[in-house]
Amino acid sequence: MALVAALEADLRALSAEARRRYPAVKDGAEHAILKLRSSSSARDLSSNEDILRIFLMACGVRNTKLSVLGLSCLQKLISHDAVEPSSLKEILDTLKDHSEMAEENIQLKTLQTILIIFQSRLHPETEDNMVLGLSICLRLLDNNRLPSVYNTAAATFRQAVAMIFDQVVSAESLPMSKFGSSSQTARTGSVTGDLSQNINSSESLEKDVISGRSTMRDTLSETGKLGLRLLEDLTASAAGGSAAWLHVTSLPRTFSLELIEFVLSNYISVFKILLPYEQVLRHQICSLLMTSLRTSSELEGEMVEPYFRRLVLRSVAHIIRLYSSSLITECEVFLNMLVKATFLDLPLWHRILVLEILRGFCVEARTLRILFQNFDMNPKNTNVVESMVKALARVVSSIQFQETSEESLAAVAGMFSSKAKGIEWILDNDASSAAVLVASEAHAITLAIEGLLGVVFTVATLTDEAVDIGELESPRYEHHPTSDYYTGKTSHLCISMVDSLWLTILDAFSLILSRSQGEAIVLEILKGYQAFTQACGVLHAVEPLNSFLASLCKFTIVLPTDAERKSFSSLVQSPVSKRSEVQVDQKDVIVLTPKNVQALRTLFNIAHRLHNVLGPSWVLVLETLAALDRVIHSPHSTTQEIATAVPKLTREPSRQYADFSILSSLNSQLFESSALMHVSAVKSLLSALHMLSHQSMTETSGSVSSAASKKIGSINFSVDRMISVLVNNLHRVELLWDQVVGHFLELAEHSNQNLRNLALDALDQSISAVLSSEQFGEYPPRSRDATLDVESKSTELKSVECAVLSSLKALYFSAQKADVRVGSLKILLHVLERCGEKLYYSWPGILEMLRSVADASEKDVATLGFQSLRVIMSDGLSTLPADCLHVCIDVTGAYSAQKTDLNISLTAIGLLWTLTDFVAKGLHHESLMEKGSGFNNVDTTPQQTNAEGVEDSDKPDYEARIQVVNHEKLLFLVFSLIQKLVDDERPEVRNSAVRTFFQILGSHGNKLSKKMWEDCLWNYIFPMLDGASHKAATSSKDEWQGKEIGTRGGKAVHMLIHHSRNTAQKQWDETFVLVLGGIARLFRSYFPLLESLPNFWSGWESLLAFVKNSIFNGSKEVSLAAINCLQTAVVSHCVKGNLQLRYLNSVMDVYELVFQKSSSYTGDTASKVKQEILHGLGELYVQSLQMFDDKMYMQLLGIIDLAIKQAIISSENFETEFGHVPPVLRHVLEILPSLGPPEHLSSMWLILLREFLHYLPRVDSALPNEEGETEQSTIGHRASSEVSKHKANSSSDKTIPTTRITSKMFAEKLIPALVELLLRAPAVEKYILFGEVIQNLRRCMMTRRDNPDGSLWKVAAEGFNRLLVEDVKICSVGDDTDLKISKTARVRIWKEIGDVYEIFLVGYCGRALSSNSLPAAALKANENLEMALLDGLGDIILKSTVDAPREVLERLVLTLDRCASRTCSLPIETVELMPAHCSRFSLKCLQKLFSLSSSETENWHTTRAEVSRISIITLMERCESILSKFLSDENNLDNRPIPTARLEEIIFALQELDRLTIHPEAASVLPLQPYLKTILREDNRDTRSHLLVLFPSLCEIVLSRETRVRELVQVLLRAVATELGLEKVSLSS
Q: Is position 1214 within any domain?
């Protein structure tokens, strides 16, 4: 055991120390060591008295060392409870003896032992032992002058007193309420921190006392009595008397007072529960303190020290703080004395002590609450709290009377700043007495300010407590005060405190805030403002609330004085600035100091906190915010941080506007938070904004000064904030809308233009914000009762939507100024553009408004209204209710008919088309019904209905039927509007209406029923046609003058109008044309449907009558449109085979009638009409040729014949003047290729071709009809006669002759078409006409003699060549069986062909005919044509399998030979005069003879063999003649050169002879000896036997002078040798 070991060591040391001088002690120590070894615990040690005895013996010898060892061992034993309580008296006596010893260490050891005794179980319980123990401490405290002993004795006594009262609490079973040894709570960094700390301490203290508190007891335990006697002695000592119970004559008063203060502050329950203690407190302690508080008292001739005064004040503070509830009178006296001390002429330190005490009361919410309840709220007592607050305020206000007020204020600000930073404000060490005085005064003022702040925060804290316990409603929720609203204890307390103290606090705060500039103190004061104002708001204390708000607002924005303006002006102006620089208006310069900024922030905090309870007080706040808004947006406003002499360009905008940005954000957030406010609070806010704006409106009405602009700024602020409130309260907009918009409408009627614009913009933003919110455009959420929810949501949306849009409507109709009406329409346009798809219930009002706008005379108004209508048509039709569609149509019609703006009318008509597109979607139901039941079988009789009106199974069909009916009515409503517009006097409008009408029918005609089509035809289409026709016929033909656009030279200048539109009749003609074009488009798309309608034929006949009348009496455009109308109707559907023949015949009759009346129908219009008819006939025939019969075809040819004759007769000089075919004939030529008869009308080919052959130049004499032709052409002649008869009967024009009428130009264009037709004709008809065509072509070709420069012969030659080349099979033997053509007829045709070739090639080709000096290109073209004819004859006809007789073939070959002989047949003298093309033609013919004789072909047939036999003989003769003629000419010319033509001819002949190889059949006819033929044939060397025939001639010409001729002859001779096999014969062999 450690204790035993330590004691044994101490005993050995004790034995060693006492060995010489104190043997008894030595022996006792050794004996105790032996005893100690037998002890193992503290209990064993306490039962062994010998151990304690040896230590007491050691102390008793009064030796210093032994006493120290002995006391140390005693301390160990006592602390380990190893001493019996019965030994206490002996121990205390020993200690008493040691206390009389002079050694310091002995005295300290004694005090330590005393303290250990009080802390151990040996704690004195008897009065003697208690007095003995305490007296030892007091003796050492009183007699010893050593500081260490004195301090230790004082500390020991204090601890002993504390342990005694702890024992009292324990013995009396009292709650422990000790919260600290310090009697003053340390100050924190702010008053709010002090307040919260004291609140926590006080609350815990009160809870402990109340938890253990019972009824007061007047009986005490022994321990309690000891404590009471001790307290009485301490009180007596503090009062300067003797401590009788402690047997001490005197104690230091301060020491006694310290102990009393300690006991009062730490053992509250003792005084609150034990009556004897409470009596001592009331009668003795309070009496002591009251006496001590006397300012002029002197006790025993001794001046009262500051420390003692501090102790007295602290004790008084404890009594007031802790025992005021039981010591009412005493505390009242104390408080009055304290308050009185603040304004008495006392030392400054004394007043500071008092202020510290008062500050402590103020910052403790519990203390202040109890004081106010016990005194101020009790009529029997004085208002001590009010007095205390006034005293503090008086201290604060005293600063304005001090000479050093500025220095004091600076010191106060420094103290607050230091406190905010958590450091202590200290004067400099070398500070003067004046500085110390200023600091002391500042300290006093600081304590007073903090005390007032503590009161404010206490009120705020108590108010929050009342809210927490439910006595008051939180400002976050709406609360309407009732009669029992303030019945709660805490709430009543708060109201009483506010009513009693607010004015005093406000005066003090406003004074300090106005004089102070330090940031920390300003923040603290503003916190007080905020706290108290918020408390007033929660308590609904209107007057204090408004007063504090008004005071606070004064510090937010302060207009500068003249001196400040000058100062600022000097700062912002640079010393070197130029005079021309614009100076800032000093009146507009506003500088926001940090105090202003903080005050504004405080105001924002208050407004955020109290937004639900401010009510009318909002006006004060809003006036300040309006001023702030002007400052923020003013270019001359700034903050104090940058209002320094800094060059303008060096200032940082971010720093300059940092505060403004923050304030602007706070300003916006305040109104954004209105979403959290109750509706009544929001209404109060709006009312305040309205009031602010209304005040400014009143002041603005008659003013034009700068003040008026400020008022307008206030109005602008109010309007903007109203919008902000509305935007942030869209979830309950219905409750606020009327209040907000009512003010906007009021502004809209103001005389100031700017205010009207402001109101319109605000209304626009408000409506758009509401309609763009989430509650619109969404289906209401479903819940358990979905139907009720949907109905409720719909009702709410309807109410809101109608309220929002009705305001716009009311603004328009009530507006007296045009700009307001324009603005309201702009708003409507914006609404429709942004939110049109969300509207539903307000459409009737909108459409009514737009309908009234259509009749407006102002162009701007009408334009804006129409823009809104366009938006509806573009995007809003799908959301438009069904019952509003007819209204929408009516509105659109109104805009179409208005006369203000033409463009609006035109665009509105287009919108009608858009609207019908939408309406036509509903007609789809009808088409479904038609498919199921047909047009005429729709049962419109309602079926048997049930209780709901319609049978369940048929309900969808019934609803669909109702829908169809509605859409039909809507569609016809549109048609009725358009029909009215067609009669409009403005051509642009009626033309647009016509286009739109037919476009609608064209787009949606497939959705219309037959009944609807009938209505359209008879009620709209034909009346429209009749009206347009009548107007076109009866309108004025007077020319219009265009709109006057100015003057020049005093004369009016008019806009030019095109000649085609410069009369009313021409304008109506255009409308008529559009109607006809629309009908044509309808016929193209829906003619089969229309044809099936009843009485359509009568309508068709009416249309034919209109067309005839238009053709003969109308303008060119009308006539062409009428023709196109008929043409489109029949052409579009005849190709499909679904057109009745009578419609086609009726059109043909109309066309024929036009040409029959040629005598009365002339001019340019007639020409255009005829051209159009011809073009239409061609198209009509192509599309409907399967529908034509003989009669119709002959009628077609008759019409064309009439057209040709009329054109030729009426255009005799046209070709001469213009050099081309007249337009009518040109159209005839264009359609001619398409007039070929179909297969079922093949006999009409003869009629067609012979009809057009009449327009070619006539042959001199008709060829005789030979045998076999009559039978084949009987049908053709009969048909031709019938056509002639039809033409004679149908022609009513007696001026047209029956003889042939021709035109050369027409013939030139006609020949290629006829050739093309003949090539396409069937074989039989083609062969019948072949001879006639050849004859006509021959006649045309022979015109080359008389007109070599003309084109007719060329065209005929080309046609002739093409006819033979491309149709050479017509002459082949292979087709003989198919065609059944007689041999005689074939011979006749070939003879005719031979005649053409012989006459044209021999007589007109290759000759130097007279010409008007044609250009080289034309000559070359003529030569190419001649060569083409030769190519066709030589390469195709004579080499094909034609059935031409031999005599014809010989004639054709002879023709080629005659042409080839021209060069050599001419005398040598004239050869040189022959043109080059003649020589080339002759050589070409010679080349064709060589080609025909050659065997170089794969297709060798009988005709080819026959031609080869004929041509080889002719060729040999021609070559013989060329050789002999050349030899003769060469001999006659002697040394003169041979003509080039003659030389080229012989060279060409020799070269071709060398290349020529002949067929054996051709070789067989050569004039050679039979044996030679046999030899050559056997050796297969007969392919060049033609050289043997010419051998003699070759031998003669071998001696020619021409080298080239000799060389070629040598080649041929070698070839002869080769042919005879002589190249192998030699002399050597």
A: yes
